[in-house]
Design brief:
alpha/beta, five-stranded antiparallel β-sheet, 31 strands, 14 helices, 614 residues, single chain
């Protein structure tokens, strides 16, 4: 019978780095963690990396905080374990970036150390040869291919779909935003009667709306095809699978879907970038029925249901719910956690939820979906938990419970590439896998699963490869060392956040100074009739900051929040403080000036709000 032990978890060997700085603490006291789960993210002036747990157990006490400098042997936390000798200490794993602003999708990848398989031996001949092969033509894949081609490499891009752009351009980010724009305008004009401008009730032509969405997608994907041709990037359509360390076999696909023709060809490469992305998680008990869809199915927009269930209260589900609600559907949402849109601060979500309450008949929190069956009347769904009602019947059920990486679908083991049990591919700060000439980027390397992260990773991997092949030391030294990655929910109102959130600061015991500017004091927001929003900035308020702490994070809720969050990300990357941001002259009247005013609030110099109490 095992007995609990209290052990110290220390910083393991960190290579050539004498000292590194903690830029994110990923656990808190009381958390139950797994062996090799990431505990903290640290960085030096050259790289960032995650320090994993050496044992499984319960976190009893944190010994470090954000901003601490640590070195090999520094104690990170006290951990209660069942058997202190059963798991060996683990070396840190370098990763692409901290995940402080990751949205809730699939569970975060801990990027564990994975046993490396032995590469297969390939003795056949190749039909095509290239300097660099890219598997997957999503935002990360095509960006990597184009960047490498611009740098002078011979590039082949493998994609299973008929068009380039991956999930994002074809069945994700872009088509959803096209529909969300239409929904936002429809919602906006409803309020114009009180302003003296009246419109009639909207008349929906769903076929025209679907055609509009498809035209938006076609314009972008067609542009990518043209740019690939301009750059002399060879596009090969089909499923790519490794057959050796330097060879991929492509099973050709055709038509609008992914039907395999039976034709195969082999590509030999010097270097390779895996950009194969992720796919939506499907609950095993959900019936195979056209009334049960994932985000791709929802974007097909076949018809507007009277009653719709969203499985999962994250960004993807709530965005699609916004579209269908505006078009006429009544919504229920079920979420296992205690709140919607996990990852964003609760004060921001509270404003969103108040604005969107009329869309929902039921918001079921701390509730599981445990069964479903197809009936002539609809999909009958059974729930379990605090907010569980009796079984309910829906015309449409949207599964939006996360995404899972495609790492297990490439026969990566035949190239000797390590893949975790969950399908993630661990990489270092240059996006290199355990096989030196094979790189990986995007969803497949871990959270956050966001297109803008994949694009930046793509540029790094392409530059490193080009540098190594062309003998350019500057390119070969490229690294992905972004401090933060912004997240946006393109709902109405939008929610955007980046860096440390207020909830994280409280949980980690980090002292911050908050600058909160309500849009009820924004001339532009009032003029727009959309003054429900707020802008919030968080600055380091530790004793070491001496009252001039750098910005650590920020968030906002309101129209166009996603268009403005980039300034906050830049401020964090540049190490700006409240004076830097507040004294930057923002144009008036704009929503963006709320960022400068939030900084002035933190500094104590804002004249657009009543004076603060002394």
């Amino acid at each position: 019978m095992s007995q609990a032990h209290l052990i110290e978890v220390k910083v393991p060997d960190i290579g050539d780095f004498a000292e590194v700085t903690i830029i994110e603490v990923l656990v808190k006291p009381g958390d139950t963690i797994k062996a090799e789960q990431s505990l903290i993210t640290v960085e030096s002036d050259k790289a960032s990396m995650e320090i994993p747990a050496s044992h499984a157990g319960v976190v009893k006490e944190l010994k470090v905080k954000l901003g601490d400098a640590v070195k090999e042997g520094s104690v990170l936390l006290m951990l209660e374990v069942a058997d202190a000798t059963e798991v060996p200490a683990t070396a840190p794993v370098a990763v692409a970036a901290p995940s402080a602003s990751a949205p809730v999708s699939a569970s975060p990848a801990a990027a564990p150390t994975v046993a490396a398989p032995t590469a297969a031996s390939f003795a056949g001949s190749a039909d095509l040869e290239c300097d660099m092969l890219v598997l997957g033509a999503g935002p990360g894949g095509y960006s990597a291919a184009f960047r490498a081609a611009d740098l002078g490499l011979k590039v082949i891009l493998v994609e299973r779909y008929a068009t380039l752009g991956g999930v994002c351009l074809n069945v994700g980010c872009i088509p959803s935003k096209a529909l969300l724009h239409v929904a936002a305008v429809m919602d906006e004009v409803k309020h114009f009667d009180s302003l003296g401008v009246s419109f009639g009730e909207p008349v929906l032509d769903i076929n025209k709306l679907r055609t509009h969405k498809e035209k938006v997608v076609g314009k972008l994907t067609g542009g990518l095809a043209a740019m690939a041709k301009m750059r002399k990037v060879t596009v090969v359509r089909g499923y790519g699978n490794f057959v050796g360390a330097n060879h991929v076999e492509v099973n050709e696909t055709s038509g609008d879907a992914q039907a395999q023709t039976g034709k195969k060809q082999t590509i030999a490469f010097k270097k390779c970038i895996i950009a194969a992305g992720s796919q939506a998680v499907r609950l095993p008990f959900m019936p195979e029925d056209p009334r049960v869809v994932d985000s791709t199915g929802a974007l097909n927009l076949k018809e507007v249901p009277k009653r719709m269930l969203i499985l999962g209260g994250g960004i993807i589900g709530l965005e699609m719910g916004t579209v269908y609600s505006t078009l006429g559907a009544r919504l229920d949402v079920v979420e296992m956690m205690d709140g919607l849109m996990q990852g964003a601060d609760r004060d921001l979500v509270k404003i969103w939820q108040k604005m969107n309450a009329p869309r929902f008949d039921n918001i079921m929190l701390k509730t599981k979906t445990v069964a479903a069956k197809a009936t002539p009347a609809g999909i009958e769904v059974t729930f379990e938990g605090e907010g569980a009602p009796a079984p309910q019947t829906y015309d449409l059920v949207l599964q939006a419970v996360g995404r899972t990486p495609n790492g297990k679908k490439l026969s990566a083991d035949k190239a000797g590439v390590s893949v975790s049990d969950r399908g993630f591919i661990p990489v270092d700060i240059q996006m290199r896998t355990n096989v030196p000439h094979i790189f990986a980027i995007g969803d497949i390397v871990g959270q956050p699963m966001l297109a803008h992260k994949a694009v930046h990773e793509a540029h790094v991997a392409a530059e490193v490869i080009a540098g190594e092949l062309l003998g350019n030391k500057e390119l070969a030294s490229a690294a992905f060392n972004a401090r933060v990655i912004p997240s946006v929910a393109y709902t109405d109102p939008e929610i955007a956040w980046v860096g440390l959130t207020e909830d994280q600061a409280k949980a980690q015991g980090i002292k911050v100074k908050k600058g909160l500017f309500p849009w009820t004091a924004s001339g532009r927001a009032i003029a727009n009739g959309r003054d429900e929003g707020v802008t919030k900035l968080l600055f380091d308020d530790s004793p070491e900051a001496h009252g001039h702490g750098k910005i650590l994070g920020g968030g906002m809720v309101g129209t166009h929040a996603g268009d403005m969050i980039g300034e906050v990300a830049l401020a964090i990357e540049m190490g700006a403080d409240a004076i830097d941001i507040g004294k930057t002259i923002h144009p008036h009247p704009t929503l963006g000036e709320s960022i400068g005013m939030a900084a002035e609030v933190a500094h104590g110099s804002c004249t657009d709000l009543p004076p603060s109490r002394k």
